[in-house]
Each structure stands twice: as structure tokens, then as C-alpha cells.
Specification:
Length: 340
């Protein structure tokens, strides 16, 4: 207990020497986190689908964010900063808690991605229930997988909260060890977080609903964020800022892949021959001229996103429409005399 009080005195003295450069940089980082994640939220909402985002990327990202937020809350330095707010001014307190605020904002924003991933998950409602597994595209996640990911994230978050609260109330001396465990867990999850997304992007050959502008902001921002936390927590807080170095490196790989796939597609719009990597497609239009909207073509955006899915939906509509394309009162139809 004495060591914690000594640490708190040192932290309080440090908070009273507000570093205004680091303070404003921390504010800019929070604004950058919000802006970058809003770009991702908007991308999913505007496309009306979470296609292209790996469910396992979401799972690893949310569980890593859970662990990271609990980690910084349980760190002795953070707890000392919170206690110091009773002794220092409001500005000094705010400056001391900016590191917690940064990670908290990121945790909330990634949780929103999980919600949007579920809300805009495109289920193939037209597929028969007894459809063979060979017909299902293995690169497309199932609704059962999406629900499993959400349940795992919820269970993980509850366990982290229960264990952290129990140690804080009953055994605070073990909080530092628990914080390091959470930091290692968060760093491990973040290190492999982008592996399933790299695999998904590689097989889709396009970014889908993954926001390239978000990654352009977050990749360099991740290194800046790590430097800011490192300046605040020092080498003792390696478990907090180290995860962002790993995440920035992996995110940079996904960004390079996404730009590599999307760039030829955009260049193809200005040439006579369209790009072959990904067909240009506006989800509000249909590539075929139909005599009248059918059950799928009337709301094509609900069933198709890529060119292949469009063709599959329209072919399915054509098959179901066989035998129904002869109007009752048309010449030769039932109820018609055959004379105009």
C-alpha cells in the first residue's frame, strides 16, 4: 500500500507540471480516433452492408479493445492519476486522464462497428434451407458465425469486467499483475487481429465495406498514439502502448492490399476497357433492362452487391418466373379471344 501512495505522490507532482504540447496532441488524437471510426461507420451505413469485413477481425478487435480498456483502468499509474484528481486542478486532472479517454473512445467506436456489422449483415434470405454446403460460398460468413462472434464478444467483456471489479474490491494488490495479463492478451489479439481481414480482403480482391480513408488516418495515427501513451506511461506502460505499434503495422498491410485492389478499378473508369479486378457497380442501378421489376430486381440492393451476385439474383428470378410470363389477357393467354 505504501508503494502505491508513493507512486500517487509522484504522479500528482507530475500532473501539476502540465505538458501543454502533449496535452494538445492527446486532444488531437481523440479527435482523430473519432473521425477515423466515423468514416468506417459511414462506409458500412452508406453501402447498406458489412460485406468485406471479416467477422473474426471484428471478434479479435472487440476482445482486444475490451482487454486494452480494462488494462489501462487496472494499471497502478492510471489509478494513481484518478486519485490525484482530488488534489489537482481540473485542467491538470483532465490532462492526466486523457490516456484513459483515448482508449475508452476507441473501445466504444469499435463496439459500434460490431453493432453495425450485425445490423447490416446481408443474409441470403432466398437460399433454400436444405441447400448443399458445396453451393455456399466459403468466403462469405454465415449469419450463425456473426451471431457467434457477437456472443463471444459479450461474454469476454462481461468476464473482464467481473474479474477486474472483483480484484479492485477484494484484492487490489493483484491488479498490477492482472493489468499486465490484460495487456499481453490485448497485444496478442491485436497482433493477429488483421490476419483474418488480410485473408478476407485477399480472397475478395476488393475492400468491400472496409474504409480505406479510415485506415489512411489510423495507420500513421496508431504510431502517434503509441508515442503519446509512451510519453505518458513510460516503459512501465509497455503493455498499453505496445499494442498500438503492432496494430499500426498490421493495419498498414491491409491498407496496402486494399489500395492495390481498388486503384486499378478506379483507373478503369477512365479507359475504354473496364478494370478486371472488380466490376464497377452502383447498387442503386441494375445492369439489365427488365420488362417489369420482379421480386429480386425490384429491390436488388437487398440481395446483391457484386456483379456476380447481381447475375445470380436475376437468374434466380428468371427461373422462378418461368411459366408466369404469359399475361392472362395477352394474345394467346387464358381469357383472351386471341383477337385484338
Amino acid at each position: 500500500m505504501g508503494s502505491f501512495l508513493d507512486m500517487m505522490e509522484d504522479r500528482c507532482a507530475e500532473l501539476q507540471r502540465v505538458g501543454y504540447t502533449n496535452f494538445f496532441v492527446s486532444i488531437l488524437i481523440i479527435i482523430g480516433i473519432l473521425f477515423s471510426y466515423l468514416l468506417q461507420h459511414y462506409r458500412i451505413i452508406s453501402r447498406g452492408t458489412s460485406e468485406g469485413i471479416s467477422p473474426y477481425f471484428v471478434l479479435l478487435g472487440v476482445t482486444s479493445a475490451n482487454s486494452q480498456f480494462a488494462n489501462i483502468i487496472a494499471l497502478p499509474q492510471s489509478r494513481a492519476d484518478v486519485e490525484c484528481c482530488k488534489q489537482v486542478s481540473g485542467l491538470e486532472c483532465a490532462a492526466g486522464l486523457l490516456g484513459i479517454a483515448q482508449i475508452g473512445v476507441q473501445w466504444i467506436c469499435f463496439a459500434i462497428i460490431l453493432v453495425l456489422f450485425l445490423v447490416f449483415f446481408r443474409r441470403d434470405e432466398t437460399a433454400p434451407e436444405d441447400e448443399d454446403d458445396d453451393v455456399i460460398d466459403p468466403n462469405q460468413p454465415t449469419w450463425r458465425t456473426a451471431i457467434g462472434v457477437a456472443a463471444a464478444c459479450l461474454v469476454h467483456g462481461l468476464l473482464v469486467v467481473i474479474i477486474t471489479a472483483s480484484l479492485a474490491l477484494g484484492a487490489p494488490d493483484y491488479l498490477a499483475m492482472w493489468a499486465n495479463i490484460l495487456g499481453i492478451m490485448s497485444a496478442s489479439l491485436a497482433a493477429i487481429q488483421y490476419v483474418p481481414q488480410i485473408w478476407t480482403t485477399y480472397h475478395l480482391k476488393h475492400a468491400g465495406s472496409l474504409s480505406i480513408p479510415m485506415m489512411c488516418v489510423q495507420t500513421p495515427g496508431g504510431f502517434l498514439f503509441a508515442a503519446s501513451l509512451g510519453a505518458r506511461l513510460g516503459w512501465a506502460g509497455w503493455s498499453s502502448w505496445g499494442v498500438y505499434v503492432l496494430t499500426a503495422v498490421m493495419q498498414g498491410i491491409v491498407l496496402a492490399m486494399a489500395i492495390g485492389y481498388e486503384w486499378p478499378s478506379h483507373r478503369g473508369h477512365g479507359h475504354e476497357e473496364p478494370a478486371t479486378t472488380r466490376p464497377a457497380f452502383n447498387r442503386r442501378t441494375t445492369p439489365r433492362v427488365l420488362p417489369s421489376p420482379g421480386p429480386y430486381s425490384a429491390h436488388l440492393q437487398a440481395y446483391a452487391e457484386t456483379q456476380e451476385e447481381i447475375e445470380a439474383a436475376l437468374d434466380r428470378e428468371a427461373v422462378q418466373g418461368l411459366g408466369e410470363n404469359q399475361p392472362l389477357l395477352a394474345p394467346g393467354g387464358i381469357g383472351s379471344s386471341g383477337v385484338r
